[in-house]
Amino acid sequence: MRITKKNSPNKYNGRRGWKPDMIVCHITEGSYNGAVSWLCNPKSQASAHYVVAKDGRVTQLVDLKDGAWCNGTSTKPSSKVYYGKSSLKAVRDRRTNANYYTISIEHEGFWKENKGKLTEAQKAATIELIKHIRDEVKRIFEVEIPANRAHIVGHYEVNPITKPHCPGENFQFDEIIKAVSGSNSTPTNTNDFKVGDTVTVKRSATKYATGQRIANFVKGSKYKIKQLGADKALLSGINSWVKLSDLEGEGGTRNIIKVGSKVKITGSKYATGQKIPGWVKNRTHEVSRIAGEKVLLGANGGINSWLNKNDIKIIK
Ligand SMILES: [Zn+2]
């Protein structure tokens, strides 16, 4: 997925020995640009790992290896943010600052508008983002974040006294968790298209990303990608946004690497930089996991090694 990166100075370097296993959802109470700029301003003494806009854009402000300053808890019983006041058992049991073991996502919006209900584009982006976070946390920390309500939580559960309305009563936790747990890997469509690529609108497509009906002459026709969103592409010629799932690349869908794809190795080194022996290159491998630009090859007795996507080719 497409993530813009900015660096906020408001963070811990590292996580004081903790590994993240909880994703905390927030509402910005402000605009997307306003939140991104405020959370990067040293005066705010606040940050988040990610901010998701109403239109689905995503900016990352803090590296996952570092703790953001977003939903801290205090060890002082007199504090309003004392960990003992949390409604989450894990937060109470860990007796430390929740910023050490959480990943925070801010969502553009105001609670008074619709009580935290995300727009469709925002919800779709958050689903993709959480899948991406789970893949990254697995890769970096070897931690599997369970897709359930104990691990994908709201700020109001961490700090019930100070943040009872963050992200809000209408935030779509259940829908998001259902979508996240429905697949154990990031769909790769979002990584496979670039601006300038020629794509074909699938014949099965019915509506543009904006909801309008796609005319028949557009289906099956080729267009160049002018601009990319998290889950959609602006096509030149028709000048319309089409969902990535409704597009096919130059070589058709067979070029898209998926979990289960059979591949050969074309490169000479693993993602770790180690040299790949000849016998490994001669074999056919199966993709067992995808994380960003890397793929894990060989499930069930295979080589079980990470390779860069550029160093493999699909054979069927
Ligand atoms: Zn919050």
Automatic annotation (TrEMBL):
**What Gene3D superfamilies has UniProt attached to this entry?**
Peptidoglycan recognition protein-like
Q: Which GO terms describe its biological process?
A: cell wall organization; peptidoglycan catabolic process; peptidoglycan turnover
Q: What is its EC number?
A: 3.5.1.28
The entry's keywords = Cell wall biogenesis/degradation, Hydrolase
Top enzyme class, one word, equals: hydrolase
Query: Where would I find the N-acetylmuramoyl-L-alanine amidase domain in this sequence?
Result: 7-168
Q: Annotated Gene Ontology MF terms?
A: N-acetylmuramoyl-L-alanine amidase activity
UniProt protein name: N-acetylmuramoyl-L-alanine amidase
The catalysed reaction is: Hydrolyzes the link between N-acetylmuramoyl residues and L-amino acid residues in certain cell-wall glycopeptides
Which species?
Tepidibacter formicigenes DSM 15518
- State if Cell wall biogenesis/degradation is listed as a keyword: yes
